[in-house]
Fold these 3 entries.
Entry 1:
Amino acid sequence: MKLIPTLPVDKRVDFGKGVNSLKVEIDAALQELISKLSVQPVSKVKAELFDVTLPGKPPFVGKKHPLTQTIDDIKEVFASLGFDVAYGPEVELEYYNFEALNIPADHPSRTDFDTFYIKDDVLLRSQTSTVQIRIMEKQKPPVRIIAPGRVYRPDTVDARHSFMFHQVEGLLVDEGVSFADLKGVLYQFIKAYFGQNVQMRLRPSFFPFTEPSAEVDISCSICDGKGCSVCSYSGWVEILGAGMVDPNVFKAVHYDAEKYTGFAFGMGVERITMLKYGINDIRLFYENDLRFLSQF
Ligand code: DAH
């Protein structure tokens, strides 16, 4: 357009028209471009700047508490051996916690040093053995159950004790059940839960509700039986109590002790979880600290 005044007069009109129509065309094209650019949403511009090669943010996925996982594992092993799962109340009558289990009135575990009493004859169960009685009262043999649940004892809390912990009880009653059956079932469980290399041994013991009774040890899973602080350098750790159901227990539930025999066992869930994973403080289970819980 600046050139127009410099041109000879007879050329100026044509040249001016040409330049003007070019200007109109360019203006229109520019307008179109500008309007296209200005409707671009900011987010789209940002999206184009987003680096898709960066690692993603994993969503937080919750999972079961390690004790729940252990109880599930135990249920699975015993389900494969034909055991049903049974439950009983945590607030329990003294009768089910002691009397029916052949635990005499003067037994030290019945004092309020060892049991949380709510009233004279009502307490927080101190063992899941209560479920043995509740099931046998309702059901005729054969009986084949495990009973997981919480139990309560007025122990001072430290690395190995808690006022509340979990047990899994087992009970099998039928005709012709022997101590060998008990040993076979426990053997299968221990191999399935702790692994094929773990050894098992039974030591004679005493429980009022079983006769004979045994305490069951496994070779220390922390040191492979070589000896460490967890097994007090013995290479063995106790994991459960067991035995043949005492005839007095059968009497309490009106089972014919001449016809039926059975075995029972009880294990601490915290204890076997600690042994399996090398956990050195029971309190870790109850603190709800995700740094601990997320490791399982
Ligand atoms: N109830 C026992 C305890 O809490 C454990 C136990 C021992 C359960 C022997 C049983 C058994 O069924 O036969 O220490």
Entry 2:
Amino acid sequence: MGNLCGGKKKQTTHLDKVKKELNGIILTDDQLRRHSQEFLKQINLGLAKKTNAEADVKCFPTYVQDLPDGSERGKFLALDLGGTNFRVLVIDLGENFLFRMKSRIYVLPPELTLGTAVQLNDHIAACLSDFIHRHSIASSKLPLGYTFSFPVQQHGLTKGILTNWTKGFNVSGFAGHDVVQLLKDAISRRGDIDIDIVAILNDTTGTLMSCAWRYTNCKVGLIVGTGCNACYVERTENVELFTGDRSKPYMIVNTEMGALGESGGLDYLLTDYDLAVDKTSLYPGKQKGEKMMSGLFLSEVIRRILVDMVEKKLLLNGEMPEKLLHKDAVQTHYMSDIEASKEKGSQKDCERLLKDLGARTVTKQDCEVVAYVCELVAMRSAHLAGSAISTIINKMGFKDVTVGVDGSVYRYHPHYHDYMMSVMTKMIDKGTKFEMVLSNDGSGRGAAIVAAVAAKEHGH
Ligand code: GLC
């Protein structure tokens, strides 16, 4: 394998100094190979019953064993909980891959993401009731697919225990409980709606299913957004935690790969910036892989680097803007915005970021440094994602694979896809055809498709 990380930066002495400082963020081929080996090892530990407890990557069975064949039809409700907002949708799957969808975004007050299970579920049930009444579908008792994008140990398609929170949520009374039952309890507390929850799923599963509706060779679902995770199609015989009917040959497995590195297997990659981000996060020591890959954490990595660059007098002439010292002062969208404006030869987003942070004078050189930092951090994330997906594709052994991808980082960063591809073309076994496709609305349409497949299965 050659060098995966070639760059073509304009050389300036100043930028050279910055590059030298940040060299550790650029991953070498060997580091990526080790990353891939570690991921494969952890997947195998996660799949096996007797080692699952010690595995970083839990490889949860999803109980989704049938991929869609495009014939799925009907009207479904979907709930999507997993990020800053909460959505309710009604989706009508029709002929020729046409579908109609109405959705509403409900604000999730931040205090609810740190409150109690009863408060959060009552809020979800209230939004659901509001939606159903607005759309006058209260009498139809539509089947509902619930996209709940956190680590869930499933015991069936409609039963799943939350193992731990991720992505900034920390709601008490949830972990260790059946997520579906908690919502059903909240719905009965209201008593004004009648809902048939037919499936609970992860957003990666929804993404895979949504993509597979069209691309029958879609075997992997990837999210790189607020969080980062992937699911894939595994042989049922390898999914030892699965307790149901083993006659079907395949099952989607939710890797929860964001947790990779929790037992120290990625320590060789961690920079001081990563260590600081981890230490000051809501769950130190947890989701170590995700902290190098997903939007929620990348902006913090960027902020830490910028602070260091100012301290080293490589940025803003050494004048520290006070705001920059505060956690989460850099908003996630800047990473993609800056790259997009750089494409157009503009530094306006770098300037905007530094000015928003309170910098008084911003030079062209400062903007170059900021753009470079953003590029490096995004590239590292994409290279890790590329290595992870290559590992999965090689493990599955299918010769023609489509990867369905969603998430704000992948979607809005102009080069993320290409960065991933540069690694994948080198790491994926020769002779395997693969492509990555932006999967539209996995959490919504995917939930409807999972619900539709489940309904078909049960003869509805
Ligand atoms: C976090 C969650 C995972 C989800 C991912 C993307 O990693 O634990 O379940 O799929 O974020 O939203």
Entry 3:
Amino acid sequence: MAKADLMDKIVSLAKRRGFIFQSSEIYGGLNGCYDYGPLGVELLRNIKEAWWRDMTLREDIEGLDSSILMHPRVWEASGHVENFTDPMVDCKECKARFKADQLEESECGNRAYKGRKAIKCQEEGKFTEARNFNLMFKTYLGSVEDNSNTVYLRPETAQGIYVNFLNVKESSRQRIPFGIAQLGKAFRNEINTKNFLFRTREFEQMEMQYFINPEEDEKWFEYWKEDRINWYKKYGMKKNKMKITVHDKLAHYAKSAVDIEYEFPFGWGEIEGIHNRTDYDLKRHTEYSGKKIEYFDDLTKQRYIPFVIETSAGASRSLMAFLVDSYDEEEVIKENSDGSKSSEIRTVLRLHSYFAPVKAAVFPLVNRDGMQDIAHNITEDLRKYFRVFYDDSGAVGRRYRRQDECGTPFCFTVDSQTLDEGTVTIRERDSMAQERVNKDNLKEVLLARI
Ligand code: ATP
């Protein structure tokens, strides 16, 4: 399948099945913003929940939920006011706006020159001089709109962690090494948003900052690099679609940095960054707030400003990577009612069962002989523990196909044998294998398989 087609198919499935909608669609949409529909919100929550559990159900990591609006000095200390900029150019002819360092990859905004690269327009002198554009969204605190009340929507969750380092250390009585994990919304006024959820203006991050003794920075950097790539593998991401890229150009705060990249249909793209941020952030917050942020190790009697190893993942970008990774089309042979055979294409989302928005669907084979009542009862029982979907419309084959597209890992079907001997079929999404199980312990059956 052509890569462009694949992306179109995923975007279309995401809308058709209720994963992702364009924001404010009835008003023509809002660029770079998306809404998560009934299945999308479940998938996103499951990804975030998996990350949260894996990060915080351990001795050495505490959770945090800091506010989106923070004191404006935070962003001066962090360097965002000064440095969080992209060079921007405008086309004098078609008025499109580009990131000046991406002209080779960007397409000219003029429909009349479809497919033409923006770099060509630059060569022809159509662009303004590059100027720096700060990516932070500004707003005002309180009712007076003047500069002294300016606050920013946070462009990353990390700073909320640094400014709470002392609070968390003291209240949780953690000793170094320890980490603080936080997930939540971040906002960046990106010059160009593109590639669906890859680069949006509002998105969610899953960040963990690990505070360490500066002498151990290399050891912990390696540890978190391994740990994070294994996390994606644990939830089924294909190994050959992931790679680690080492940054040769480092950000002003970093001593070393790598990206975990995924091969999207439009090319390789970062899904998570792992950075050795040294003591840059804590030092800067000490300097700007006047409050000394340091650590005293009462065993070794060492006093120091901790180094930070950061793992910074995008929840929405990861969701997109998992969607792409799990999308599959395969040819299946189906038996027609007259006994003949024909082939059809089955579209299936092979999502990890922990991520799947709906864990099981329940069908009565036909709508008679009390099969619907039994299927309803099974649905209600299972719903106490899992997200379950009941469906009695259309041929059972079509119902399976619908669930395949939603990534539902298991389907239970009530048939005439259920009436005679109390068993139902369980059909597994990936292999399509079916077996019979007792209808009275489906909760255990599901638990064992998820
Ligand atoms: P990029 O170079 O792609 O803009 P970045 O290096 O600025 O990314 P970080 O600041 O390291 O990204 O952010 C950490 C993670 O947050 C990224 O790996 C990505 O998953 C996510 N992220 C960053 N910007 C966006 C965005 N505009 N839309 C969606 N996710 C984003």
